[in-house]
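Worked example 3 (structure in, sequence out).
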């Protein structure tokens, strides 16, 4: 078994909207890299799986997602809202698969593992949003489920956490942490070159 699948995680409007509290600065740059990866995987005949985060109205499926401190917040990522739709600039390659998740991990409560096993996948390449939430969590869970993990850091994105802790810092710290025992870290250009 030697097959790699690309996980394209949460490329949704909520991260591209400048009015959103989750707006990702330089979104178009990371989106361009994600699209390049998807095209590269499709051209190589490798699986591409698009994952989208969504909750039912009222949040009855949200668990601790929006009250992790014990104080309930407004439910976000509601099914049917504009924010949860794929961004218009996302290139969906022919033959790609699609799943919806309701937690940070793409594995929790989804059919992802069954799909990967059916495709004889032993390695997942992770890209999308947010670097330090859904992408990092999925990388860690994939590792714990005995997949090899390739984390394409510059094809991920996250909102700045503070003026002195920006997206670049988040990518760097997440990459260093994952490289310590969970994943191999790449940039998109090098990864695509290595695929050829």
């Amino acid at each position: 078994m030697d097959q790699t699948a690309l996980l394209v995680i949460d490329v949704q409007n909520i991260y591209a909207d400048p009015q959103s509290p989750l707006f990702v600065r330089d979104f178009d740059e990371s989106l361009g890299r994600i699209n390049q990866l998807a095209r590269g995987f499709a051209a190589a005949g490798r699986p591409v799986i698009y994952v989208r985060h969504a909750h039912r109205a009222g949040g009855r499926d949200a668990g601790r997602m929006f009250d992790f401190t014990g104080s309930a917040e407004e439910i976000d990522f509601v099914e049917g809202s504009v924010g949860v739709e794929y961004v218009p600039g996302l290139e969906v390659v022919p033959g790609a698969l699609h799943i919806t998740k309701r937690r940070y991990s793409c594995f929790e409560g989804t059919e992802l593992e069954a799909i990967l096993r059916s495709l004889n996948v032993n390695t997942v390449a992770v890209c999308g949003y947010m670097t330090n939430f859904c992408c990092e969590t999925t990388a860690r869970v994939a590792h714990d489920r005995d997949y090899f993990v390739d984390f394409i850091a510059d094809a991920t994105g996250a909102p700045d956490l503070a003026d002195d802790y920006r997206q670049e810092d988040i990518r760097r710290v997440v990459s260093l942490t994952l490289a310590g025992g969970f994943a191999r870290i790449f940039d998109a250009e090098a990864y695509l070159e290595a695929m050829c």
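Notes: The chain has a mean pLDDT of 93. The first strand starts at residue 4 and ends at 9.
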